[in-house]
Design brief:
10 strands; 8 helices; eight-stranded mixed beta sheet
Length: 267
């Protein structure tokens, strides 16, 4: 009887967790998890952004770009993180991408692939993000040298993220990529008012909006890093939201309440 009651309780708890879209603890010993991040480099000339200093607003210069090579850019911030190491970077893996970097999480079998898209290719970056969120497998594997290791990418990742200017404020896509399989991926969109502008595309992809925004924001890497800390730990979406808000307030000094209202999780 005790075993039956225990099994019933376990089933109920699992159903409740799924209904709440909580992150389940992952078996880190058996599965390598993947994150693919699509970064649209800031571009004063070709994007509708509030101009930033020319050195960090050149969409053809990844090394100094606000969202890539600057202090809080994805490449620099994750390279300096004590939790991650960077085994590889590749220049120009595709015409639209200036650089691709791969990061390995030190405490669990996890990799992060980050692509720095030219500022002029922001529409392609947005499209590729939606395509991956729906299970698309454009160039689905990447290699880590010198050890030959093929890593799943794009739609084979467990979580996909977009970072950069909200290009959908400036242009429309002719259509949104549709869901291609039954896998539920998590999606993070760090761009201004992304819940409003990315909603239709994320919905069409079938991905779950783990974290996105309700207003203007600086899409810098500390927010992504903090959200991933919670995701890796198997936390629920509201805990991940609070982590992101805490990191944003720490670096932007905007106040805890404002930061909390800036981020949203779920529909």
């Amino acid at each position: 009887m005790l075993r039956a009651n225990s099994a019933l309780l376990t089933a109920v708890l699992l159903c409740a967790a799924n209904a709440a879209h909580a992150q389940e603890p992952h078996d880190q010993a058996t599965k390598t998890r993947m994150v693919h991040v699509f970064v649209a480099l800031a571009d004063n000339q070709h994007q509708g952004i509030i101009p930033v200093p020319a050195k960090i607003g050149n969409g053809e210069d990844a090394a100094n770009n606000l969202y890539w090579g600057s202090a809080y850019g994805v490449k620099t911030f994750f390279s300096h993180s004590p939790d991650w190491e960077r085994p590889a970077c590749t220049l120009s893996p595709k015409p639209a991408i200036l650089e691709r970097c791969i990061f390995r999480y030190k405490s669990a079998p996890m990799y992060l692939i980050a692509d720095a898209y030219r500022g002029t290719e922001i529409k392609q970056a947005v499209w590729d993000f939606f395509e991956a969120a729906g299970g698309g497998t454009d160039s689905a594997t990447v290699s880590v040298q010198p050890t030959v290791m093929n890593l799943p990418a794009h739609g084979e990742a467990d979580l996909v993220a977009y970072i950069g200017h909200d290009g959908l404020m400036d242009f429309q896509l002719p259509k949104y990529p549709q869901r291609k399989d039954g896998t539920r991926r998590d999606a993070i969109v760090l761009a201004c008012a992304s819940k409003q502008f990315f909603r239709d595309g994320v919905q069409a992809s079938g991905a779950y909006p783990l974290l996105w925004t309700t207003g203007l924001m600086a899409p810098e890497a500390y927010t992504l890093k903090s959200a991933l800390d919670g995701w890796i730990a198997g936390e629920g979406h509201e805990q991940i939201r609070e982590r992101a808000a805490g990191a944003y307030d720490k670096y932007q000094k905007c106040g805890a309440k404002a930061a909390h209202h800036l981020f949203a999780s779920g529909w």
